[in-house]
Amino acid sequence: MQSGFNVISVGGSIIIPQTGFDSQFLKQFRDLIIKQVKSGKKFILVIGGGATARQYQAAAKNVGIIDREELDYIGIAATVLNANFVKRLFGDLAYAEVVTNPTKKVKTSKPIIIAAGWKPGCSTDTDAVLMAKTYDAKAMYNLSNIDYVYTSDPKTNPTAEKIMTISWRDFRKIIGDEWNPGANLPFDPIAAKTAEKLKLTVGFVRGDNLVEVEQALSFGQFNGTTIR
Predict the structure, then answer these.
(1) What are the Cα distances from residue 197, in Å, to 19, 77, 92, 169?
(2) How far is CA 16 from the centre of its chain?
C-alpha cells in the first residue's frame, strides 16, 4: 500500500456478525489499527451494513417495501449506525464526523477517517473505491468473512475453486453487473466496474483473522485474493 491514507472496506459482517457483537474481536481490531497508526500509517475505514442492514431490509420486504431505492436507504442507515459505533472505538484518533460523501476530501490531521454509505444503487464497496480515487490511492483492502474469492459460491458448489489473482474483467464475469440491495457478494458489481476503470488493485483479506490483516497492513503479504 502507498503512503497517505490506506483505504479499507470493512464488511459489516466483521463488525456485527449474525451471532451478534464480539467485543473481544472489536477490541483486538481497534488495537491493531492503533498499532498501525503508531507506526505512521493513516486509514480510511469504510464500514458496511452487514447483518444489521440485511435484517432491516428483510423486515421491510415482509411489510411490503420492495422498492430497491428504499431498501438501499435502509441499508445506508445501517452503515451509518455501524460507522458511528466504530468511530467511537477510536476516540480522538478519528475524524470528528462519519464521512458519507466519498467524492469530497476532508481536511483533517487525524490519522483515522470513518466512512459509511452514501447513495442508493451500490454498497459501501463502491464508496471505498471512490474514497481510493478521492485520496489518490492505487490499492485498497477489502475485509470480509471470506478467505478468498471463489469461482462460484462454495456454500452451494463444493467444487468451487479458490482464486489467488484475477483480472477485473474475469471477476466481473463471476459476479455479474447488477446490484441488488443486501446482496451477499464478495464485492459489489458497481464497485468492481468502477475499480476496473480506475485500474485499482484490491486485496481480499479475511477480516476476522487479525493475523492475516496485520500481515497485509504491515507487509502487503496475505493469504487471499488480489484483483487488478
Answers:
(1) 37, 28, 36, 10
(2) 13
Domain membership of residue 52 as a residue range? 5-227
Q: Is-above-0.85 flag for pTM?
A: yes
187 phi, psi to nearest 5 deg: -160, 135
Query: How far apart (Å, rounded) are the C-alpha atoms in residues 172 and 189?
Result: 7
Mean of all residue pLDDT scores within the chain:
94
CATH code of the domain in which 83 resides? 3.40.1160.10
Domains held by the chain: number: 1
The Cβ-side half-sphere exposure at 134, using a 13 Å CA radius, reads 17
Distance from C-alpha of 141 to C-alpha of 144, rounded to nearest angstrom: 10
14-28, 38-52, 135-149: least confidently modelled range: 14-28
Cα dihedral 164→176→216→209 (10° resolution): -90
Q: What residues contact residue 107 under an 8 Å CB cut-off, 6+ apart? A: none
Q: Which residue has the cell 467511537?
A: 88
Question: Is residue 16 scored above 60 in pLDDT?
Answer: yes
pLDDT in tens, 32-56: 999 999 999 999 999 999 899 999 9
**CA–CA separation, 180 vs 48, rounded Å?**
15
Tell me how far apart the alpha carbons of residues 202 and 152 are, in angstroms, rounded to a whole number.
Answer: 19
Q: Are 8 and 78 in contact (CB under 8 A)?
A: no
pLDDT over threshold 50, residue 2:
no
The per-residue pLDDT for 108 is 96
